[in-house]
């Protein structure tokens, strides 16, 4: 951690980190819901439209590893500026797309830029924020994601209603440029580049730190998987029990508001009581709630489970990033975090196909319960391995 004469204040992250992250998230969240419809407009069938919608995550996976070298070379602030600028430029392919290839390229580039932007802010906080304030800092960053995920689709809906679907693609362009402008206008002293990592390749570091990655890193991946299963599973279950779409959307929205309202709670728990006391409740709560979802066969039950899932999720806001920051070695912070984030993103990317496959073979109730089992396994892993490592 960089030592300074003045005590670190979390509010110093608002302008250079939290605000750009919120703006970048708004643009991404506005774009995601319209990608399948845009792909269908170019003649894609349902399966192809789904594939194109998933290209953002594919771009992120491809860029997770090279992101470390980019951040080391340019520094965190410049890396975030360039990522925002390239994302805005890349999405112009989708704005002016005349075929599915141009649309796909725009989505892929945006996902790749997300990896660079995400690693830069994660690594910066891991380096400059004292251990005792990491939980709150990263919980606020998690809250910025949630706020962007809430505002983006609302703005997109307004644009669609007033202008049309194609106009939504301008939102990520505008908000990515706004994020870049905020970073560009940040005073150098407010976000000074941290020392570049000195050492070996990402894969060397992954081998050297493999015990951390295959124990606590794997446990952290289960939380990301459980969250994705919740995001996908709730609307699927609403469809399964024939809940009206508008009712399901309303209840999921109410639950999302609860999730956002409580995001800071996790940071306080993490900093005051330790990582285990956020990790165990969130994963155990997610597991029990996923099991309970399979028993919810009416609107009331669906709402109660959606609220329980949101409450459990809120208790772990920023926790995956906190664990990564805690485990990252001082001599290879970005290399370690790049591989750690690849593990997390890989788990997220595999969740939807795994849920689909399990649903085809065993049915939706068993598939959702299966992710409850994964969440319980993650809780056990957190309980067992969190105390095993010193916090950097």
Automatic annotation (TrEMBL):
It is a multi-pass membrane protein. The chain crosses the membrane at residues 12-35, 47-67, 79-97, 103-126, 138-161, 167-184, 247-265, 277-296, 302-324, 361-386. Pfam families: MFS_1. It is found in: Cell membrane. Keywords: Cell membrane, Membrane, Transmembrane, Transmembrane helix, Transport. Residues 13-390 form the Major facilitator superfamily (MFS) profile domain. One of its GO terms (cellular component) is plasma membrane. The keyword Methyltransferase does not apply. GO terms for molecular function: transmembrane transporter activity. This is Unannotated protein. It comes from freshwater metagenome.
């Amino acid at each position: 951690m960089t030592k300074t004469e003045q005590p670190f204040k979390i509010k110093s992250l608002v302008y250079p980190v939290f605000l750009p992250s919120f703006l970048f998230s708004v643009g991404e969240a506005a774009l995601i819901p319209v990608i399948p419809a845009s792909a269908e407009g170019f003649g894609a069938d349902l399966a192809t439209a789904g594939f194109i919608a998933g290209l953002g995550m594919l771009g992120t996976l491809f860029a997770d590893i090279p992101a470390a070298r980019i951040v080391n070379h340019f520094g965190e602030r410049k890396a975030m500026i360039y990522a925002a600028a390239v994302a805005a430029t890349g999405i112009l392919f989708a704005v002016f797309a005349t075929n599915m290839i141009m649309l796909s390229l725009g989505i892929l580039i945006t996902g790749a830029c997300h990896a660079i932007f995400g690693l830069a802010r994660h690594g910066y906080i891991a380096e400059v924020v004292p251990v005792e304030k990491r939980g709150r800092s990263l919980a606020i960053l998690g809250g910025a994601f949630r706020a962007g995920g809430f505002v983006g689709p609302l703005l997109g809906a307004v644009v669609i209603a007033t202008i049309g679907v194609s106009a939504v693609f301008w939102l990520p362009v505008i908000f990515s440029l706004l994020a870049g402008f905020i970073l560009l206008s940040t005073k150098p002293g407010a976000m000074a580049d941290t020392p570049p990592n000195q050492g070996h390749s990402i894969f060397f570091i992954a081998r050297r730190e493999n015990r951390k990655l295959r124990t606590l890193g794997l446990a952290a991946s289960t939380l990301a998987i459980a969250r994705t299963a919740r995001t996908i599973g709730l609307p699927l279950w609403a469809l399964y029990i024939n809940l009206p779409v508008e009712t399901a959307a309303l209840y999921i929205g109410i639950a999302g508001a609860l999730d956002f309202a409580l995001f800071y709670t996790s940071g306080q728990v993490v900093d005051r009581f330790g990582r285990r006391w956020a990790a165990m409740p969130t994963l155990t709560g997610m597991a029990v709630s996923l099991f309970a979802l399979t028993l919810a066969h009416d609107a009331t039950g669906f709402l109660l489970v959606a609220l329980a899932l949101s409450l459990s999720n809120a208790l772990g806001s920023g926790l995956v990033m906190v664990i990564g920051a805690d485990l990252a070695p001082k001599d290879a912070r970005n290399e370690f975090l790049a591989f750690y984030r690849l593990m997390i993103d890989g788990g997220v990317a595999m969740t939807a196909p795994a849920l689909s496959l399990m649903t085809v073979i065993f049915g939706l109730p068993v598939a959702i319960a299966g992710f409850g089992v994964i969440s319980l396994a993650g809780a056990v892993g957190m309980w067992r391995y969190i105390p095993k490592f010193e916090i950097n």
